[in-house]
Write a structure and sequence with these properties.
Number of strands: 6
Distance between the termini: 28 Å
Number of domains: 1
CATH topology: Rossmann fold
Radius of gyration: 15 Å
CATH architecture: 3-Layer(aba) Sandwich
Shape: globular
CATH class: Alpha Beta
Order of helices and strands: EHEHEHEHEE
CATH superfamily: Phosphoglycerate mutase-like
Largest sheet: 6 strands, mixed
Strand order of the largest sheet: 3-2-4-1-5-6
Helix content: 25-40%
């Protein structure tokens, strides 16, 4: 069996929306930037490496993803913005993950609640919650991401 690792990262704290700012345009707050930088530093100390980071098309997720990628020295070519991640629910997220190349062993998704939290709960079979800038690591005993549609995680841990 192969081992695939999936990281689900909820974006860091964003600024409040206003009448002239769409939800997609909301930037990270000062606290959000600091939290993402702290997380990137902690992950770097754990020698975490990623093959691919998929981020939602909102400003706050792109910024969170870039901070993590920079902290882990992940090339910008391995950080892809995917519009379908914005407001994606469990089944859409599973479809996106299942379509990832089997050459990718360590995948991070940077997205939003309730989608990420619902996906995490689905994968584990138990209710989980995800605060802003929280990260959950899942390990799977399979070789092809397509198997995420039918296989539960062999183990998981909250990493922040």
């Amino acid at each position: 069996m192969g081992i695939k690792t999936l990281y689900l990262l909820r974006h860091a704290k964003a600024e409040e929306s206003g009448p002239f700012i769409s939800d997609k345009e909301r930037a990270l707050s000062e606290k959000g930037v600091k939290d993402a930088e702290k997380l990137a530093s902690r992950l770097s100390k754990k020698d975490l490496s990623l093959d691919l980071i998929l981020v939602s098309s909102s400003v706050r997720t792109i910024t969170t993803g870039r901070i993590i990628a920079a902290g882990l020295h992940v090339s910008s070519a391995h950080l892809l913005v995917k519009d379908s991640l914005y407001a994606a629910e469990t089944m859409e997220l599973l479809k996106i993950i299942s379509s990832v190349s089997k050459k990718i062993n360590r995948l991070m998704i940077v997205g939003h609640n309730p989608g990420l939290m619902n996906l995490a709960s689905f994968i584990t079979g138990e209710p989980l919650s995800m605060a802003t800038c929280s990260l959950i690591k899942f390990s799977f005993d399979f070789k092809d991401w397509h198997e995420i549609l039918t296989t539960r995680a062999s183990k998981y841990s909250l990493l922040n």
